[in-house]
Amino acid sequence: MPITFVDKKMRCKSCKKEFVFRKDEQEYFFKRGFSAPSHCEICRKERKKERRRQRRHFLKAINAAENVKIEISASQGPETSKTSDDVNVGLTPA
Ligand SMILES: [Zn+2]
Q1: How far is the CA of 15 from the centre of ligand 1 (A)?
Q2: pLDDT at 3 (0 to 100)
């Protein structure tokens, strides 16, 4: 029996706004085994940008050799609203 998807209203964890998790998106997520998003499209894009920024920062830090650890902890310091997910992603080398 095929699974049918319907548009679903979700609330973004970041900005607390309601967004629609469209049925075509649900299908896409489902096919790839992703879990439902907990953030609206806008916040997801922002998070993506942030990850890219962290990655660049991290690669730069690697190039700077022995200062790597200091660089990373400094970049994570003041931003306490991050989830552990966000923190880990930037630290994974390519
Ligand atoms: Zn949002």
Answers
A1: 4
A2: 74
Q: How far is the CA of 66 from the centre of ligand 1 (A)?
A: 37
Give the integer Cα–Cα distance in Å for 59 and 90: 9
CA of 39 relative to ligand 1 center, distance in Å:
5
Q: Are residues 33 and 60 in the same domain?
A: no
For the stretch 24-79, pLDDT in tens is 999 999 999 999 999 999 999 999 999 999 999 999 988 886 655 555 566 665 55
Query: How far, in Å, is the centroid of ligand 1 from the Cα of 46?
Result: 9
Instruction: Clarify whether residues 34 and 67 are in a common domain.
Output: no
Structural domain that includes position 56: 47-94
Contacts of residue 6, defined as CB under 8 A and 6 or more positions apart, other chains included, come to: 23
* Residue 43 alpha carbon to ligand 1 centre in Å: 4
Q: What is the pLDDT of residue 4?
A: 87
